[in-house]
Write a structure and sequence with these properties.
2 copies of one chain form a homodimer. By secondary structure, chain A is α/β, with parallel strands linked by helices. Chain A has helices spanning 5-13, 15-26, 38-50, 119-135, 158-165, 212-215, 222-231, 254-261, 267-274, 286-295, 335-348, 372-385, 401-408, 433-452, and strands spanning 55-59, 66-71, 78-84, 104-106, 109-111, 142-148, 173-175, 180-181, 187-190, 192-204, 210-211, 300-307, 316-317, 320-329, 355-362, 365-366, 390-392, 395-398, 412-413, 430-432. Chain A has 2 domains: 5-191 and 367-452, Aminopeptidase (3-Layer(aba) Sandwich); 195-249 and 296-362, Alpha-Beta Plaits (2-Layer Sandwich), CATH 3.30.70.360. In chain A, strands 1-2-6-3-7-19 form a 6-stranded mixed beta sheet. In chain A, strands 10, 12, 14, 15, 16 and 18 form a 6-stranded mixed beta sheet that branches. Chains A and B meet through strand 10, strand 11, helix 6, helix 7 and helix 10 of A and strand 10, strand 11, helix 6, helix 7 and helix 10 of B. Strand 12 (300-307) of chain A pairs antiparallel with strand 12 (300-307) of chain B.
């Protein structure tokens, strides 16, 4: 019998119970952008950990509370899990096939807001611990959890929390909130994340909307002011036009480029899956494409609002307009500097009427591919997935990993249950149950190997 | 006793009954942009005319029905009233102090969607007829009404209706749907209206919204495509950049400029009322300002929609974006030509991905200031308002007056109950009851004088 056979068998035999637990957790909305259900969800998460004999502390912040939990194990080693209990807004609601907060199991999948990002990852970690505890009443090493409630709004209070509480989180390695497989079902390892600077640009030109026949050729129009301001930020060739924006951008190093070169090409799969005709800048795929996807900074309009948006026509001159924008940052850009460059640029361009609000920010960060813990995670993946882990030196998304790096100095790896069709942040978010089992087994194997390393 | 004393006394003594009738009419929503309540409102309007012994015909069109009504009078002359029973959408609902479809009387005003535009004008005409019928059981001349249900969406089926039914509408003069006083309570005469070309620009870049961390630097973004396309339509100095757009624009003639010169300057009042800091192009007021307000064509963004528009942040790359735009047209521009110029321009600029939909259009048209009916309306206004009528050669708004001009050849004048704070098309639309009485008296006096002319 292989050393992990009992663990794997336990996991294969207890899927329904874990999915039931995940379903209960997802039925509790916890939308940080809308300040909806966060306290309730933190309590629920705390209860789930207490039931496993973790010592739980729900720690208030200036925003949503942080759930901290720890339980001693057999070895002196300590493994830290970072997860979050908040989710993205479920809108647009009409595009969901089943209600977002009533998880629905069909066709080998579970659908619902948060089943992947990130509640399913959290319950998968608990499920791995349950399997280990079924084998031995003591955990093989010390386990700590930190779950925040503001990841989806760029973790505005996590830095402050960490400054005060980092001693609690001391550990030897950290497993990040997400992970999963690529288009070929190969497990993926993400060794870095881009940073983010999320802003809202808004403008008000009058105290009310006005009949467009009255004001059209004499009154300023908030929507036009916004259009012209946005147009100064990026040109049609995707060049970000804010002076100084690219100054701190570092090209990937030779090892990172080598890792990128070894990755499969997702271009055709992206086209099919998302119905995309052409990639930006005439890219067709290949190394150039993969490098652009993660090692280039972005300026993405996430939303636009102004005036009348209903059916048909309304002849109105809007008094207000606003845009939500995220900048994804690469080493060594910082959100603070990008925000300053943006506001200075708009002022220079004559857009003093545009108000710029920083809604969230975080720095980019990477883990060393040569760290022994990275090797352990890659090795254990092979047992579970029967194919080698694909190592990404950087992924396009963002998270507060830079804060963990700065305060704890631990290697940060990914291991998880996602797949490319998980629809994270989109309608019909889902997980594949076969991958839920595999991701759970991988985490259990990691804990065992780590405890013995 | 003055010839109109009995009429004026009747009107002074029956305000409550007319306001009750207007309240009932406004409680019936009839939002053409949302195809809401139009049939019901047409029936209600028909009943109100039948009660006054009009012969009523509710005539179907490819859109909302047209209500036609006629009643014989003592003289051979025929006066035509053009009104509309549809209203603008009431959104944004949260800015209304009382519900838009539950008219509320307070502080000498009546508030509700449509109390001014245009249901209050219609009931004011009926009220004037009631006063004349109280004096004499026969009307002094033939009266015809046409009420359409699609004015607020640029009358898409009125041209076709007119082609088929213009014989019904033969008349000697026409009183248009609106009118009222300026900032100094002086009655206003509007002798022309700008045309309109209302379009929706929309773009779709993927089959779904995508996580912005995944697609930000490789996938096209619908919101950015829209921004860049819009930016090619108008520059920050308000120049409309569509080649050929200005080719048919005629400067106002000497008589029109003379009329404009005689008008009071609304600049300061506009600033105060609408909370506007600066007018476009550095204008301060004066003739230049008044001329720009009505004799220049416009390109107004009426609405923008894309991606996430809720509270806080959502890191999403939008698959769809759209903008509603109205172009106000001056002689001799036409909506057909502007639409063709716009689509050709966008194609030339490389925006073949932008779909352009024509949502409504109408040509500009003017009435000759020297027409005897214009003089009659101006003369009768002096009796009611105790100050001379202010004659505007053109107003900034639009309506289907060009169709009436083309098929009926009648002079078209304005007479009505509005005031500059009426909030037409905006939240808290209202009428002043003192002006409701004056506008009603003016129309009654016009009918008497016209019958005897």
């Amino acid at each position: 019998m292989q050393p992990n056979d009992a663990i794997d068998r336990y996991i294969d035999n207890h899927l329904d119970a874990s999915i039931a637990e995940l379903t209960r957790l997802c039925a509790q909305p916890s939308v940080s952008a809308q300040n909806w259900g966060l306290q309730e969800c933190a309590s629920l998460v705390g209860d789930m950990l207490s039931q496993r004999e973790f010592k739980v502390d729900i720690i208030p912040t200036a925003g949503a509370p942080v759930v901290y939990a720890e339980r001693q194990g057999a070895s002196a080693k300590t493994l830290l899990f970072y997860n979050h209990y908040d989710v993205q807004p479920a809108e647009p609601l009409n595009l969901w096939e089943t209600p977002p907060f009533e998880p629905s199991r069909r066709d080998g999948k579970l659908y619902g807001r948060g089943v992947n990002d990130d509640k399913g990852h959290f319950t998968s970690r608990l499920y791995a611990l349950d399997a280990l505890l079924a084998e031995n009443e003591n955990l093989p090493c010390n386990i700590k959890f930190i779950l925040e409630g503001e990841e989806e709004i760029s973790s505005p209070h996590l830095h402050e929390f960490m400054k005060e509480h980092y001693q609690l989180l001391k550990s030897d390695a950290c497993i990040w909130e997400s992970g999963g497989v690529d288009f070929h079902d190969a497990p993926q390892q993400a060794l870095g994340m881009r940073g983010i600077c999320y802003v809202e640009l808004s403008v008000k030109t009058a105290n009310q909307d006005v009949h467009s026949g009255l004001g059209g050729s004499i009154f300023p129009n908030a929507a036009w002011r916004l259009i012209w301001a946005l147009n100064t930020l990026k040109d049609q060739d995707e060049n970000i036009l804010i002076p100084g924006f690219y100054d701190r951008v570092k090209a990937p190093n030779a090892q990172q480029v080598a890792l990128l070169s070894a990755l499969p090409d997702p271009a055709e799969e992206y086209k099919k899956r998302y119905g995309i005709q052409h990639f930006l800048k005439g890219m067709q795929g290949g190394l150039e494409f993969r490098q652009a996807a993660v090692f280039e900074p972005t300026c993405t309009i996430c939303g636009l609002t102004s005036g009348y948006q209903g059916a048909g026509t309304k002849t109105v001159l809007p008094a207000r307009a606003s845009a939500k924008i995220d900048f994804r940052l690469v080493p060594d850009q910082t959100p603070e500097e990008v925000f300053d460059l943006l506001t200075a640029h708009l002022a220079r361009q004559g857009f003093n009427d545009i108000n710029v609000q920083l809604l969230g920010g975080g720095r980019p960060a990477v883990t060393d591919p040569d760290d022994p813990f990275v090797k352990l995670v890659i090795d254990t993946a092979l047992d579970v997935y029967d194919q080698p882990m694909v190592v990404e030196p950087m992924i396009g998304g963002s998270g507060p990993n830079a804060i963990f790096k700065q305060y704890l100095g631990v290697p940060i790896v990914s291991a998880g249950i996602g797949h490319p069709g998980s629809q994270a942040h989109a309608p019909n978010e889902n997980i594949r149950l076969d991958l839920y089992l595999k991701g759970t087994k991988h985490v259990a194997h990691i804990i065992k190997a780590f405890s013995e390393s």
